[in-house]
Amino acid sequence: MSFLVSNIQRFSIHDGPGIRTTIFLKGCGLRCLWCQNPESIRSKPELLFDQKKCLGCRKCIEKCPFNIDNTKGFLSSKEAFEKCNDCFECVKACPTNALTQIGDRITIDDLMAQVSRDRHYYKHSGGGITFSGGEPLLQSKPLKAFLELCQMENIHTLIETAGYVNWKNFEQVLPFVDRWYYDLKTGNTKLHQKIVGVDPELIWDNASKLINAIGLEEAKRKINFRMPVVPGINDTMESLEGLKHLLLKLKIPKLTLLPYHNFGEIKLQKIKPLPKIKQLGIENEKSNLALSKVEKFFKNNGIAISIEQGLFNDQTKNETQTKIKVENRIKKIKNKSLIKHKHHDYTLSTRIEKLKRDYFSLKPGICTERSDNLYRYYKNEENLKKPIIIQRAESIISILTNSTTKIYDDELLVGSWNSKRVGGSIYPEISHIVALLNELFKFDSRKINPLRITKKEKYKLLKQLPFWMKNSFISNFIKRSGTHTVSTLIDALKVERFFINELGGIGHYCPDNKKLITLGTTGIKRQASKLQKKTDDLNRKNFYDSIITVCDGLEKWAGNYSKLAKDLANKLDDNNPRKKELFKISNICDRVPKYPARTFHEALQSILFIQIAFNMESLDNGISPGRLDQILYPYYKSDIQKGILTREQAFELLCSFSIKLSELVPVMDTNTGDIHGGHLAGQVVCIGGVDPEGNDSTNELSMIFLDVMNKLRIRQPNWWARIHPNSPEEFLKKISTNLIDEVHSPALVNDEKAIPILLNKNVTLRDARNYIPLGCVELIPSHQVVGSTDAGMINLVYPLELTLGLKKRGKRKIKNKKKQLYNCKSIDDLVELYAIQLDKLIDDFMIDLTLIERVHSELFPTPLISTFLEGCIESGIDVTQGSTKYVWSGVQGIGAPDVADSLIAIDQVIFKEKYCDLKTLRRALKRNFVGYECLRNKLLNAPKYGNDIPVVDNMLSRIMKLYNDLLNRRINTRNGKLCAGFYSTTIHTVFGTNSHALPNGSLKGTTLSNGLSPAVGNDRLGPTAALNSASNLDVNSAENGLTFNLTLNSNVLYGEQGVNNMQSLIQGYFENGGLQTQINVFDVKQLEDAYENPEKYPHLLVRVSGYTAYFNDLTPKMKREIIDRERKRKL
User: Fold this and answer.
1) Cβ contacts of 482 within 8 Å, gap of 6 or more
2) Of 815, 842, 1068, 1079, which is the most exposed, with the fewest CB atoms less than 10 Å away?
3) CA 355, CA 343: separation in Å to the nearest integer?
4) Residues 451 and 602 sit within 8 Å (Cβ to Cβ)
5) What φ, ψ does residue 204 adopt, rounded to 5°?
6) C-alpha 19: how far from its chain's center?
7) Residue 691 pLDDT exceeds 60
C-alpha cells in the first residue's frame, strides 16, 4: 500500500502545533481560483518545469518520444500538451532538474521511515505529522494504515481537509486523528460553485457529521475551521454572512483566517495548464486590507477569530504533549536555586548604559605602551644576562606596572588593556613584526577594521623595528630553520595549503581562576617558595623565582589602581556618591589579587586583573575565564545571604565585567584579519552543565548571565552554555528566548557527547565533567591542559585538488599520479589516493609546527600563565614545555563537507551513472566548468551534506576519521598527540578564494564550508534535516571540537511557540547525538540593508564560527556568507 505524494516538508511550523512534517498528497476535487498548491490537484504524477534552471541543452528533446520542445515554456502549445504522455524520460535526461516529476509513489513503511527521522523534535515540541494536499482524504486507505502506525508510535497527527469527499473516507481515519483543520471557502452556495467549482453541501454536511462523531465539546478542541481570505473573491458580505450562520449552526463559533499569498501563482507557471485556475495578481496590501475587514466582521458578530501566524495556544500544546510519552534518560530535578530568579527581569542601569555608550563611542586603537616597555627592558643589557624565564617574568611585570593607570567614570571594575581604553597592544617579540612591516602606516586608513594610531606612535614603533627584526620570534625562527624559512613564510602569506597560528604564540588557555580567588598571589608564592626549597635543579629554581616575580608584580600593578582610586576619592566632596565607590574600589584593589577574595565584587575584580595580565604576557587570543557561574556562585550566594549584595547589583557587576572584556580588540594585519575576522578574541565564559560528580550545576548565577547576554548585547565574552538531559526547563527556555530574540548567544554544547570525547583522550571522568569550550569551540578540561588548541589550520580540499591533478605538489610528487587517478574504479580507490596526499600535507605542516614550537619553548616561556595551569608549579616546568596535566595540540581541518560532497558527487555521477569519466571531470574542473555546464549541474544535483542523507553523512564521518587518525600518529614537541578540530573562524573564505572548481559543483574561488556546517545553500530540507546530518556524524573524530552553524529567519520563530520550537530543536538535536551548535536568528532583509548601509547598523551582532562579532567588522565575503546561509536555504 502506498501514497501518491507531491512533497514532504520538514520543520513545518505553520501546519499545526510544534515542529511537524507536512505530507502533501496529490489529488483534489476542488478547483479553487486561488489554489496555493496547484501541483497537488491532479491525481497522478505530472511534470514540473522551471525555466530559470534550463540551460537549453535540448537533452530532454532528444529523449522525448514526441520530440517536444519545452525550452521556451512548458508545453506552451496545444499540440505539445496533447502529445505529452507523462513518461518522464525528459526528467531522467535533464541535468539541471529544470524538469522534475511531481508525484511519487511512497510505501507506508518508507514514509514512516522518513518522517520518523524528526521524531525527537516532535517529542519535545508537541509536534507531529500533518497531512495536506490536495485533499488527503482521497487516499483514505493508505492514510488509515499510516495513522494507525502513528498512533502506535505516539506521533501526533493532524489532517488538513476541504471536506469534499464521501463521509466513509472520514469514518476510516476518524479514530486515529488527533486534530483537524477544516477549510471553509465561503458561506454562500452560488459563490462557492463559482469560485470553487462544486456545490458546498457535501462539505458542510461532512463538517456537521464530523462534529457529531467526535462530540461537540471534544470537537471544539480538536477541530479548527479555517477560511482563506482572498480579496475580491470570497470577502463579500454575502460570503461572510453565510459563513457566520454556518459556524453558529455548527455550534463552534470560532474561525482561523488564512492570509492570501501568491505562492501558488508561481507554481502555476511550472505545470501543465489547469482549467479555471489562473494568476490573480493580488498585491500584499490588498490582502492585508481584506484580512482586517474580514476579522472585524466576524469579531463584531460573535465569532472568535485567530489569524494563522504559526502560534498555538497552551491548550493545544498541552494536548499534544500529553499524548506523546516523553522518556527522559535522566529524571528532571527541580533546581531550587533557580526558583527565585525564574521571573526576575533586569534592566540596564544608568551606569551600565553610560559605560556601554562610552565603549561604543570609541573607535578601536593601537596602544604602543606594551611595545615601549618591552623595548626598554630588553635594551638594558644587564637584563639579557638573566635566565630567559626570569627575563620573561620581569618583562611582563614591567609591561603591567609601567602601563597607564586610569579609572574611568562610573566604573566599578577597573583595569585597562591599554591606554586607548578600546583597542589592542603590539607584540613585537612574538607576532607583530609582519603586521608592522605590512601595515604600520595603513592601520588607521584601511577600509576594514581601521585602528586609530597617532603619527608619533607610528614613528616610535618604526624606530623600534630594527631591534625587533633581530630579537623577535621571527628572527629566531629564521636562525633555526635556515632555508626552510622561505617555504614557511610563503605558506603563511599565501594561505593556500595551511596556516600555523602558533607563529603568533600559543594562547588558548583557561586559567585556574578558582585557585586565584581562593589562595591569592600570597598563597601561590608560598606554594612556589616551598617547592623551590625542595629542588636542587637550577632551571626549576629559576622557574619558581619567575612565579614569585610575576605574583609580586601583579600585587604592585593592582596597588597602582588602589592608590589611584584613593587619590581620586580624596578629591571629591563628601556628598558625592562616587567618593564612596572609589574608596571601595581602592580597598578591593588593595585586597586582590594579593589575598583570597571575600566577596563577589572582590572575586570578579581579581579575575579581571588576571584576565588582562594573561593577555599582556602572550598572544591576546583564546584566554578564557571559564565556568564563572560555578566559580563565582559561592561568593554570590554568601553575599546575598549576608545582605551585602542584591541580584541587581550582581547583574550590574557582570555587565561591567562584560564591557571590560569587550574593550580588548586584538591588533591584526589585513591578512590575519581575513583568517580570524571580526576582532576575534575568544574569551569564553561558559555556564550550565554538570559538576564533577555528574549532577546538574546550573544555578541562579547561570540565569543572571543569560540576562546579561540579552540586555547588554556586546561582542565579548564569547558566551557558551553546556546542555545535558537534566538541564532545568527554565534554563533551556531562557536560552531559547535569548536565541529567538536575536541575541545569538549562548553557543551550545552537549555534555553527553563532549565528555566521552575527553575520556577518549585519557582525561579522568571528574576532569572531563569540568570541561569548557575554549577560544572558539575547543574542548578542554578547565585549567589542566596546554592544548595549543588552535595550533593551525589545514585545507582539506587542497589534497583533493592534488589527487585530481588540479594543483602541482612541487618536488615531492606521487609517481604517475594522473595514471593512478584514471585507474580508479571506485570511490574507495579515490579516497585511498586522497589519503596519501593528505598524509603528505600533514607531514609538511608538522615540519613547520615543530620548528615553531621549539622556538617558543626555548625563548618564549610564559611564567604568568604557568602559575595558573595545573601541573606547572607542581613540576617546576614552564607550560611551553608541556608540564600541564594533559597535553595535546589541536589542528583544524577546513572544508571537510566540501570534500565529502565532492566524493559523493564523483561516486554518483562518474562511477555509478557513468555520465563521464575522470579525465573529462578533471578537464571540466580545470576550465571552471566553462563548456561543461551540464556536467556541473549533474554534480550540483548529487546528494549533499546537510539533508539527512546517510550516505553523505557517512562519507563526511569517514573523512573526519581519516584526518583525525593521521593527526593522532603525530606527536608535538611537548610530547602530546595532535587531534582534529573542525571549525574555521573565517579562514574558509581565504582557502576558498584560492581553490579550483570542485566536483561538488562549486566554481573557482567559492567559499568553503564553515566548520561542519553544510556548504552555503546545500541544506535544502530545512533545519531539522541539517541538524540530523550533524548528529549523524561520528563526532569522536572531532577531538578538538567543531562548529555547526544553524541559521533561522526571525520571521519563522517568534512568540511563545517560537521559544518552544527553538527549545525543541536544541533538545531534539542533542538527544539525537549532536555535539555543538551556534544559532543565528535574524531578518535577512535587515542583514542585506546592513551590507549596503553599514552606518545604520554599527553594532549589529552575528555569530561567525564559534564566536560573536559585529557585522561591520567582517570582510564583505564573510558578510555575504552569513546572509546566504539563510537566503539560499530552501525551506
Assistant:
1) none
2) 815
3) 26
4) no
5) -70, -35
6) 20
7) yes
